[in-house]
Amino acid sequence: MKFVKNMKIRSKLSGAFILLLMLMLLIGGLAIKQLGGTDELTDVIQNNTIPSIVMAGKMESLLQKKRLLVMKFVAARDARELEPLIAENRQLDEGMEQIWQRYAVLINGEEEHQAFNAFQTSFKEYDAMLQEKLLPAIQGTDKSQAYPLLPVLRGIVERASSSIDSLISINQEGLRQQTKELLSSNHNAITTISLTLICSLIIGVILTLLISRLIVTPLLDLVDKAQQVANGHLDVKITIHSQDEVGQMGQAFATMVSQLHGTIQKLAENALLLASASS
């Protein structure tokens, strides 16, 4: 404390400014750190979890189109009606392959990977039975041979649909957890920033009071003593609390008052001598 008292006023003010600046940098750093974690979670949600759910929905949509296409195959009456259906089936397969490629890079976790592989296996099994057994039976002379295959195909497509439900459920659970973490991260960021601001305010008040005590209070005391001297009270006691500019000014004022007191005493003594000599 004595060291601070003896610092120059410029050094005191500079030190207080630097301390407040460091606190502001600390606040900014903590805020950036907390918000950085929030940005990472937001990025995962936007670029992984939500696209995964969307892709799983598209796979389900193509699977149902494939299922409907089987009914169209069975209802087809001749090769002319089968031809556009075969082309549509090929487009569905190509579309599914594209979705698989996009979904594969979004997989996060062994459970999701297993569900994705199960869906691929079921879909390929469904497509293989469609092209290798159902379609030849439909194109043959006895179309009734295709009917026993329909329950088998229904069982396969139900397994595939169940795998998609698992994918959606896994990603929805991930989305819930990530949303929870995001809310928690936002709450922590707000709490950290609020506490830091409160601490900064308290420290700012302490610094203001400290500077007031070290600079303003001695100045006011010196002004009061100067007023007393102006009123003729030369016996005032001036206490020097520091060696800064205010302390130096107080020391100079004390010296001036002492010299003034001495001068007045000499004048009084000379006046007495003159009065004695004249009498």
Tell me the span between the first and last alpha carbons: 61 Å
Low-confidence stretches: none
Q: Output the helix-strand order.
A: HHHHHH
The coarse silhouette is rod-shaped
**Mean pLDDT across all amino acids:** 81
Give the helix/strand class. mainly alpha
Largest sheet: none
Number of strands: 0
Regarding quaternary structure, what we see is: single chain
Rounded to an integer in angstroms, the radius of gyration calculated over CA atoms is: 45 Å
DSSP strand content: under 5%
How many helix segments?
Answer: 6
Helical content stands at over 70%
Q: What is this structure, in a nutshell?
A:
By secondary structure, this protein is mostly helical.
Can you offer a commentary on this structure?
The protein is mainly α and 279 residues long. The protein has helices at residues 2-5, 9-75, 79-104, 110-139, 149-230, 245-278. Helix 3 runs antiparallel to helix 4. It starts with a helix and ends with a helix.
Task: Name the descriptors.
mainly alpha; 279 residues; 87% helix; 6 helices
Topology record:
Blueprint: H1 2-5, H2 9-75, H3 79-104, H4 110-139, H5 149-230, H6 245-278
Helix pairs in contact: 2-3, 2-4, 2-5, 3-4, 4-5, 5-6
